């Protein structure tokens, strides 16, 4: 049975406050009307299913010419993809700049907001110490405290940081180049996790080969995928190099399992079967490459000592006596055999230059930022920019990110492919948008456990519990495959060749809990965590008090749903608002509470859940 992508929401998202009248609104689905004033409105670039005559280089040239921001709907939709959620202020700021190109260039030049400085300040706040970098006991003793602080730091920068594009792209990289707290070692090393995330922040706009290099040499990845302390065969009787990173760096980080065309579709052999990109022999040979690396603690094997902050945060070093110096064959290339760095850098360069890497990585970035099911033409245009930024440079991520965000399909996909364009919002981004749109003030404190501790009054426990309420938090995925893979989908969508990755962490109960907690009561208690976020709703409350319902809904439509709020959803919410306002005969429900209910109804509607 054919089930349109947008209609799948019918069974997943409800209006918990409206009751049965909302069912009709849900059945209607999402308004697919979109503005025609966004970038790339050339007719030959908008022909669904046909050939796109605009090359990726033309697409990037189109960007640097600077396209004007002409509607609030387009501005809000753009910021919904490029940031952690638009607010009225950020929409106005984009309009003031005038062009999407100006906004991108401004974001590219902002200095990175890094998490480690916040962590170090946290320890200084606890201990009153000066230079804490060389004192491993500080980091060890306060590892639990810093684990909570890590979450708080992330939420603060995601919701209040100025370098929104960099932080948003860093989250996307963290979902592709995965490490996680769910590791026997990293769970007690928050400084290692914070340092790794800062790497993704710093390298968010760098060349992909540089990013791949820095990720490979970071001790956090070395511990997570078990090649830190990876020794050549025969170091101990019967030993062989660990193959974990050797496999994942190919399967998940660069080339994928099957050979791809430039548009991301699979190449097929003479029998119509997919062609594997690598063999088990390639994995074994690649494992030999990743031998000889350790952290900077002065020992090769981690069990010999991993105590210093420096060793957890600085690039790994080589110990040549543990490296396999023999010749190697990788993906049809011969490595003559050399020292550790020579072999690793050569292997990474082979992966970087592989024709799969562009479409494999670009498709995932499009999925993370714009749409779960990009057209082959969209993938091909962006992949060509990956291959050549217009100046002969391969892997220029500034050019790639720009091409993704201003492509014609990003602005007109709902017109071109109304049945499957868009992406389900990640639960994480649901909350960041709420907090940014309504200027949430963080007020959380840990209950019971740490109230008598030295850090309880220090401003470090604010948003740290948020991940628990939504089953999703940065760097806390259960496996290297992230919370969801690029290919996840319910059966009904898989049968149509479509995917909906974020549905792996979606659930009605989670949405209802969030609605009744954060939106309607400012707080949500989960075990020993008290998540609080005071929303600033003075303007919305005033509109309800003055009975300016259409003004309220117009504003929320732009800020929350980028002008995509369907007439049926809007009418249902407006009717609810009028009836509730008319029935206010006592103080049981205030105008501010009504404003919260309206926000909750919009943010749990299909029109919001499916970002278009």
From TrEMBL:
Protein name: DUF1800 domain-containing protein
Keywords, comma-separated and alphabetical: Signal
Annotated organism of origin: Thiolapillus brandeum
Coiled coil found in the keyword field: no
Family matches, as Pfam families: DUF1800
InterPro entries the record matches: DUF1800 (IPR014917)
Ranges for region Disordered: 33-52
Signal sequence range: 1-25
Species classification: Bacteria, Pseudomonadati, Pseudomonadota, Gammaproteobacteria, Chromatiales
